[in-house]
Amino acid sequence: MMTPRGTYTRHVSSVADRLDQVHARVEGAARDAGRDPAEIRVLVATKTQDADAVREAVEAGATLIGENRVQELTVKAPELADLVAAGTLTVHLIGHLQKNKINAALGAASGIQSVDSLALARALSTRCERSGHDLDVMIQVNVSGEASKSGVAADDARQLALEVATLPYLRLTGFMTIGANTADAAVIRAGFSRLRTIRDAVHASGAPGTSEARELSMGMSRDLDLAIAEGATVVRVGTAVFGPRPTPPTSAPITGDPA
């Protein structure tokens, strides 16, 4: 249950202030790029945050959240169901999805930003056909080529997108990537530019199912300015809203983090 408002007023204020700062940064980057800030949505990455923390973010103005792990997603989903039902909150999965966890993921998220293979897309389509519900999906592309990152290779992304776009019950809405792990802004920006080029080629192809493939989910706390300059329509921020994440136990697996 949600903690009574009065018991976390200070924390909400902190989250609200941080979220305001993120929106101000997005607006500034959009202006610098000659773009309308209204074109860009902020996805709040809620990895390691509990349901109460998510509610605090929603009260502060968040409308779109992303979860990295299906296990966390399914734990929080029942506690956030009222917000989703009211249309106040949209939940996406932004982390790697294994086929054996599809049922759990689809029971808790309305969008999957991390489709990286035709096999996964077909499995999602089959599951959605059984339930009769459409699903928004993005293709995750590994634009940096780093082995530590998930995603289809950039050279193969266009073909994968065209094939996914034809699958029933899947609605291809765009592409997602994680910027290169480097301090070189030119390298990071080049990766974002490549994703935009892939998106533009797919959208301009006129192929079946590609008319809605406009989204570019790219840019996190460290590099969202560069992503916005290259056309990002969704930026993913977590620590910029909640502060530093707790240190995981030493036994916890280390995985790539698209937020």
From TrEMBL:
Modified residues (N6-(pyridoxal phosphate)lysine): 47
The keyword GTP-binding belongs to this UniProt entry's keyword annotation: no
Pfam family name, one: Ala_racemase_N
SUPFAM superfamilies: PLP-binding barrel (SSF51419)
Domain Alanine racemase N-terminal intervals: 49-246
Amino-acid biosynthesis recorded as keyword: no
Cofactor entry: pyridoxal 5'-phosphate
Region of interest (Disordered), ranges: 240-259
Lineage: superkingdom: Bacteria
Assigned keywords, A-Z: Pyridoxal phosphate
Residues spanning the signal sequence: none
GO molecular function, one term: pyridoxal phosphate binding
Similarity comment: family membership: Belongs to the pyridoxal phosphate-binding protein YggS/PROSC family.
Protein purpose: Pyridoxal 5'-phosphate (PLP)-binding protein, which is involved in PLP homeostasis.
PANTHER family registered for this protein in UniProt: PROLINE SYNTHETASE CO-TRANSCRIBED BACTERIAL HOMOLOG PROTEIN, PYRIDOXAL PHOSPHATE HOMEOSTASIS PROTEIN
Name recorded for this polypeptide: Pyridoxal phosphate homeostasis protein
